[in-house]
Design brief:
By secondary structure, the chain is an all-alpha fold. It is built from 4 helices and no strands. It has helices at residues 2-25, 32-61, 65-91, 99-119.
Length: 122
């Protein structure tokens, strides 16, 4: 769990940095589409970092394999979705575009997995 909290801290900081950079520092360096890509990555990263923190806090009080799986899915989704968008914008390395939808799919599966919490309750 300690490693996951470290990831959450780094992910939140990176999301804030990326959002700030796209709003200020990179405005004159990137075109509108590239800026939107960075902002999308930062937004999804921050939302899911917050959810990941909430899930980890919940898990510490009430351990659950369902929560653990969603934490894993969201972690990999953040790296693949947001990471690929950041790297693609910086490098235009074409194979990175194939990682973004995989990350998006992992986000969706992580959310759908949480439905199991409701299904397992009496």
């Amino acid at each position: 769990m300690k490693k996951l909290w470290i990831f959450i801290g780094l992910s939140g900081a990176l999301a804030v940095a990326a959002g700030a950079m796209s709003a200020h520092l990179l405005v004159d360096m990137l075109n509108a589409k590239e800026l939107a890509r960075i902002q999308t990555a930062a937004t999804y990263q921050m939302y899911h970092t917050i959810v990941l923190a909430a899930l980890c806090a919940y898990y510490q009080f009430k351990p659950s394999s369902i929560i653990k799986l969603s934490c894993i899915l969201f972690t990999f989704a953040i790296v693949l979705f947001s990471g690929s968008l950041y790297l693609y914008t910086a490098t235009y390395y074409q194979p990175l575009v194939f990682l973004t939808p995989i990350g998006g799919l992992l986000f969706m599966v992580g959310w759908l997995n949480l439905i199991r919490l409701a299904m397992n309750k009496p």
